[in-house]
Structure formats: C-alpha cells, structure tokens
Amino acid sequence: VSYQNLIPGKEYTLTGTLMDKETKKPLEVDGKPITAQTTFTPEKADGNVELSFTFDASALRGKTIVVFESVSYKEKEIAVHADIDDHEQSIYFPEIKTTAKDAHTASNLSLAGKEVTLVDTVTYKNLLPGKEYVMTGTLMDKETGEAVVIDDKKVTAETTFTPETAEGTVDVQFTLDGSTLAGKTVVVFESVSYEGKEFAVHADLKDDGQTIYFPEIKTTAKDN
After folding, report:
1. The pTM is what?
2. Which of 93, 166, 180, 188 is most enclosed, with most CB atoms within 10 A?
C-alpha cells in the first residue's frame, strides 16, 4: 500500500479485506471473511507498507478477488481504497479443465499401437489476455497413480500459447509408442504456468473426461 500525507511518528492501523468481484461481497472461507491487519508508524509523510493475507484458497479456482484497504488512526478511518474494478487491486485464480481423446478414434478409446496420438483439449478460465503461458501435460497410469514411462522417459507434452481472451481452449498433443499400454487406462494431468511458476492444475485420476482407455483382447482357437 502506497500512502501520502500521513503524519510522521503517529501510529496507524492498515486493514485489508478480500472481496469477491462477482458478488461484490467479502470473500468468506469456512464462513469467515478474509481480513488482515498491521500497525505501522511512518517516518515520513509518504511511503509504503505491506499487508499479508494467508488463507485456504483451494475453493477459489476461476474466481477473481479484489483487495480493499483502509487506514485508521485512533480507531477512526481516515483513508480508503476500495475499487472493485481496479486491476491493480485484483488477484486472478485461473481454472482449467480437460477433455482427452485419441486423434484416430475421436473418442477416449485408443488402439495400443506403435504410433498413438492423443489430443487433450484444455478449457481455461481467468487467464490474463496477452500473456504467454505454458500448458504442460503428463500421462498417468490410473492403476498405479504414477506417471506413464515409455523407453525410460515420462510421457509429457507441452504447448505455449498467448490467449486473446480470459476464457478459451488450447490443445496439448501427445505422440507416443502405445504398444505396451494394452489393457491399461491412462489419465491426462495438466498444469498451466506463467514465467516458470505453476498456478493452475487439473489432476484427477477419477475424471472420465481426462481418461483414455486402451482395450486388450486375447483369443484361443480350437477345431470344433
């Protein structure tokens, strides 16, 4: 928080409240509003002070929150910054969902052959347009919960993209030797990162939309 025109040597209290941009009401976690507070004594009339919020954000995928701040002196409010449309006050929590298909069958059934191409369509929400993101996918063995390894390497794929709007889709394509996958079920995990920092993940072993099935058949022939 940048402040101007405070009286040096006086003790002030800075209070912050997280607001849900969609509802324009205070953000609540476990039925309680998320607030933070710090006391400071400026040496100069103009300066900066930081306020930290620590909370469980696991339910905030796809949401935008806005930080409202106020300064008080002797319990009297003397300055407020509360603009629900202020980009600088806003924090964006992206959300991604995925749908995986075999490129040949156009379904979530795939032939366990030497050349398999899987396309995972990732639907994203609440990204910042004009920024460059990296979408990274990993194939997981549903039975073991571990990454699929072929030729001693984890099967991964990556796509770099720059969205024009906050919501949209992007494809991540896997090309692999699937000849050892007959009878297995694989699940595609995806994550999106910006400037090397991961901030959205879709990793659900039970999500059928992320799942690819490799059928297996065996035969026994006899003369009647």
Report:
1. 0.82
2. 188
